[in-house]
Task: structure prediction
Amino acid sequence: MRTRRRWIGMGLLAGLMLGCGGPGGGPQVYKLTYSIFFPPLHIQAQTGMDWAKEVERRSEGRIQITVHPGGTLTRAEQCWQGVLSGVSDLGMSCFAYTPGRFPLLEALDLPLGWPDGLTATRVATALASQYEPAELQGAKILYVHAHGPGILATHKPVRSLDDLQNMKIRGTGLSAGIATALGATAIGMPQPETYDALQKGVVEGTLCPIETLKGWKQGEVIEYITDTKAIGYTTAMFVAMNRQTWDRLPKELQQVVTDVSAEFVDRHGLAWNQADTEGRAFVHELGREIIPLSPEEEQRWKEQMTPIVAEYVRRTMANGLPGAEFLAQAQAMIAEARADQP
Result:
């Protein structure tokens, strides 16, 4: 009850801050709060802060955004609900941190062989905008971004599926399902808790993009990386605004936010690609071994993913959602992006 009162109180305070008149009766100023789960020095937190600065610049100061990185306003798994309830006006976190709440968009996190973060970000934003599923009601999705292909980072070497059996592997949402399908024991856990869990042996490895090994410093507490890009999954992350906050903004300021958001889709996607490059360099500096899978072993891992994809289609179709169509479109867009790459 006390937590609920605190959340409601913060929401009311945010509402009072919204729409303050400027000095001397000037243009109305909209003071917004933005909760980001990434730590402040992470490239995605920095890109989110740059977005906020650009919105303020183009709105000529009529929109002023206070950014709270590192989950200091709402924790990663609370961020979506925090946006809906007005604890924050804006939020950035993972759809997967609230399992089951985004049934159609779960396709974005499937192990479809995502080639890189820019592709994942473009596809995720385009499909979320096209379908606008009912699961997003209560918030205005400004854009979506998503990391590059997930890899497996562990304490001991994993060179085949046999090595992975019964290992405790951290995952998030569907990536936890991937760990289970590969024969591991999945431990669901948001990214901010993973470093300590690896360090203390609560988990023996983690499924993550390689950038995480630098961006969240997890390369310090693992020894081996298995290159699993053949089943590359991603994690889609929303940048969302409370619907009432959005509706209060005048049309011209909504257009500013829309324009800046459209430009930042590629900014975030390219930041993911850059972060993956830096993450790989970081683990090389630490002397960690990167283990490639043989073509035969890659095929074994791919076969283990087939039931996960089939289950997504079955579940969404059973609930009257266009899961098969959504999935097919995502796969076609991935194939087109791969064909365009050198």
